[in-house]
Sequence to fold (340 residues):
Amino acid sequence: MSRHRLTIVLSQAPGKHPGKRALEESIAAALIMEQGLDVSIVPHLYDLDAAHTGRLFLSSVSGDMVVLSWLYPRAAFWLLDRDGIQGHFGETKLKPPADDADEDESEEEEPKHDGIGAVNPPDRHIYCLDLRDFNAHAPYVEEVRRIAAECRERHAAKQAAKAAAQPTLVELGLPVTNGNGAPAFASEQLLAPPNRRWYPVIDYGRCTNCLECLDFCLFGVYGVDQLDRIFVESQDSCKKGCPACSRVCPANAIMFPDYKTPAIAGADGGAIGGLKIDLSKLFGGGDPLATAVAERDTELVKDGRSAVGMTIGIPKRQADKPQGPKDDLDKLMDDLDALL
Fold:
């Protein structure tokens, strides 16, 4: 029986921040000493294009994988899925230390989402850890050890089930492969600096395929695949720094992993009762739809096109929406308005 090895991928932060580099190096140095791990370092996941050796390496890994990056886990997982690096979402027990004021909030369970889901992900798990959660390497090393044990146990159970159901490869006279089957890449190839990129990432665990982003975006970013599912058809047609489509998504399923606002960058939560909450709205940021329209118009004008305002692609759920009874959020907004 082949020994199960776990692939660890450490994705570097963009830029050369000395504190971030030091954390990356200390994690890598500690994990290299662990038994049963294959450790590799690649540049910032979000910037890797299809031809980059780092992306080719990720695509070559067939088994379980842990990805440590400077991104929210949800954003990292669905970014990889978009790039064809698919699997089942690995649940991590590593949680950032909560402030006392946020302790009660952190104990609340993430609401269930009824998205369309990924299409036939392979039978392996991908665990994503956020390098912004701790400034020391020890918590990450301990969590990788826990994940490795979990993966070994799951792998052993699968192997036992296969052995009980059919002859082994050795009995059939076939070669047995070790590890996760990934070919070797030189470190200098993996770490070749990529160009910075900007594009949306769809969380299919939340996406309901309403296609409102397809109607709203006027830059050819979105399309539908052979299964009539929304997908990011032209990543590099997106306008750098513009998150407008994320603001109008009713399911909070569109992420821009490098954006400064957590709800847009892929943090868990971000919606209450189907309405996306952005703290900037509570402190003078205005209505998300109006903000999105203004952002879209700005990019249209930069392209030499005419601004369209509210005349094209306005989400049906928001256009001419009848006034309903006020909920707690409405009352909160009224109270804030009264203070101004």
Notes: Confidence is low (pLDDT under 50) at residues 168-179, 271-275, 279-284, 318-327.
